[in-house]
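TA notes, week 10

Several of you asked for a full example with nothing omitted. So below is the full record: structure tokens for the whole chain, then the designed sequence directly under it. When grading your own attempts, check the secondary structure regions first.
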């Protein structure tokens, strides 16, 4: 798996004149069933400059299929919202998470980035390594809190040569693009409700009018 990832990144970086994205983890990339259960989106681990925008995208995307059955941990439960939830939880940890989450499913999203630092890879001496690159990775996992299983796990990475970026926040652009790669995979492979459901934003607007 590591060799495959390194090869993909090698090809990617050698022609990185624009932003490129790829999926590189399919350990548990199963179909999600949005027709049942309450879903809780955990606090997204990402830099503060990107956090607000990415959280808004995540809640909007999931609420398209879940309506009022999706909640955001930071606004629903302060005690759970301040708790760091690591990736790749075992069964006992997922069942323990259930005790603090009034939900059936938990969405865990982590982001990491690097700027011109690929020290964990084996091709540092190539010419492209000297370029100023913004590289980022997004990992999204979904836990079934009732069975204690990881039912979806997908990661996406991308990079952008900074001098070609039209924004002063190229890393944020790559993070959002990497997330889009994952959410498109979810949209393509998941079971969705047939009827329109009120979105997370519509639910918030309704609350503000009450």
């Amino acid at each position: 798996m590591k060799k495959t990832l390194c090869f993909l990144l090698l090809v990617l970086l050698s022609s990185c004149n624009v932003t490129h994205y790829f999926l590189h983890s399919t350990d548990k990339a199963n179909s999600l069933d949005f027709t049942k259960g309450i879903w809780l989106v955990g606090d997204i681990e990402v830099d503060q400059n990107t956090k607000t925008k990415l959280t808004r995208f995540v809640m909007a995307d999931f609420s398209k299929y879940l309506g009022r059955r999706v909640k955001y941990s930071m606004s629903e439960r302060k005690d759970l919202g301040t708790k760091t939830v690591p990736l790749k939880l075992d069964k006992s940890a997922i069942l323990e998470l259930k005790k603090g989450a009034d939900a059936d499913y938990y969405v865990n999203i982590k982001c990491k980035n690097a700027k011109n630092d690929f020290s964990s890879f084996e091709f540092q001496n190539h010419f492209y390594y000297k370029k100023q690159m913004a590289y980022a990775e997004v990992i999204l996992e979904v836990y079934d809190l009732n069975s204690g299983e990881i039912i979806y796990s997908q990661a996406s990475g991308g990079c952008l040569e900074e001098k070609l970026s039209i924004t002063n926040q190229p890393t944020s652009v790559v993070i959002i693009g990497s997330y889009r790669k994952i959410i498109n995979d979810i949209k393509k492979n998941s079971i969705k409700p047939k009827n329109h459901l009120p979105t997370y934003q519509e639910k918030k607007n309704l609350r503000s009018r009450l």
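Confidence is low (pLDDT under 50) at residues 2-17, 120-130. Use that as a sanity check on your answer.
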